[in-house]
Amino acid sequence: MNLKDQVKSLSEKYFSDVLEFRRHIHANPELSFEEHETSNYVKDKLSSFGLTDVKSLAETGLVASIKGKNPDSKVIALRADMDALPIHEANEVSYRSKNEGVMHACGHDVHTSSLLGAAKILEEVKDKFEGTVKLIFQPGEEKFPGGASIMIKEGVLKNPEPHGIIGQHVMPLVPVGKVGFRNGMYMASADEIYVTVKGKGGHGAMPEFNIDPVLITSHIIVALQQIVSRVASPKMPSVLSFGKVIANGATNVIPNEVKLEGTFRTFDEEWRKEAHKKMKKMAEGIAESMGGSCDFDIKVGYPHLKNNEELTNKAREAAKDYMGEENVVELDLWMAAEDFAYYSQETDACFYRLGIRNEEKGITSGVHTPTFNIDEDALKTGMGLMAWLAINELNAK
């Protein structure tokens, strides 16, 4: 049996184990940076596979290595995230969340269990690949500043230093049994905008005695869209959206201030910085010209995620070899953000999508929803392909 077929055989053999891993993690979700029990569970499983060098980073994060032949010759990293979301699960399944108000609604239980399965496979065939596979189980993907940034600061990409990193993420739009890749820029940066527009409140029937922050805010919201429509290059996707406006007055009361919150996303770090300056200047100028003032605060979030051309091309071809060309699709730009982007700013990266959709089974819900679930057959692909991508990359000449 060749190595590829052996990996496939092992993914079938260990499917029931990984299914158990996934269901346990799903039933016991923990919020970002609170993944203590999940981390202990993962560490215990890695130890049971025979991995002895397992280290903790960022409190609840873990890093381990599987050494093949000539372990110092080449190093590739595989990454999974472990945190859940503050969502009340609506699924009626045997492995439903036991922690009310907390749910694995973004598939991190799938990512973690798949990487555990990949680790089990890689440990069994380690005499058949060159170099070292670094396993990264990180906390806090869903919460700023992102567990990846902390793991990097604490040295997860050092000792040994990987030449690249591969991550996978569930995709409800892609059918089970398929995966998706995209070269170059893939996911957007994400910044949070917090604005306080100050005026002078009073009776709504006597606006001449007031400085209306509601009116000022409305002008700011409309004007700031020029940053996207008339300042950004049409070749550079950008999104500016405001989802929260609080003007705590009444039908006949103009408030003293208005709170405004939103998000700005794009794919270019230089343009991102420039846009921040222009938005702040425009908002403050509009407020001042209308007699008020504006506190404009931008919390800089995750950078944009870029997939290295060479690493992604090799991973795509390896996936076609492993799964069949008809089961590998091309992905479009995605305006959501992902803290895997921090790794992509530090080393060659490939972030691909794992299909989980099955319309016949009614599995169609999107991530971050109370009814999110997966076709669990995806776990076979999840663990097997991750293992194969690492092996293929390490054995490449």
Number of helices: 10
Helix content: 25-40%
Q: Structural class of the helices, strands and pairings?
A: alpha/beta
What is the overall shape? elongated
Q: Please list the strands of the largest sheet in the order they lie side by side.
A: 1-2-4-3-5-16-6-15
The CATH architecture classification of the largest domain is: 3-Layer(aba) Sandwich
CATH fold-level assignment of the largest domain: Aminopeptidase
Mean pLDDT: 97
For the sheet with most strands, the description reads:
8 strands, mixed
In N-to-C order, the SSE pattern is HHHEEEHEHEEEEEHEEEHEEHEHEH
Q: What are the low-pLDDT stretches, counting only 5+ consecutive residues below 50?
A: none
Radius of gyration: 24 Å
CATH-assigned homologous superfamily of the largest domain? Zn peptidases
Return the CATH class of the largest domain: Alpha Beta
Measured by DSSP, the beta-strand proportion falls in 15-25%
Q: Please report the distance between the alpha carbons of the first and last residues.
A: 22 Å
Q: How many β-strands, per DSSP?
A: 16
Whole-number tally of structural domains: 2
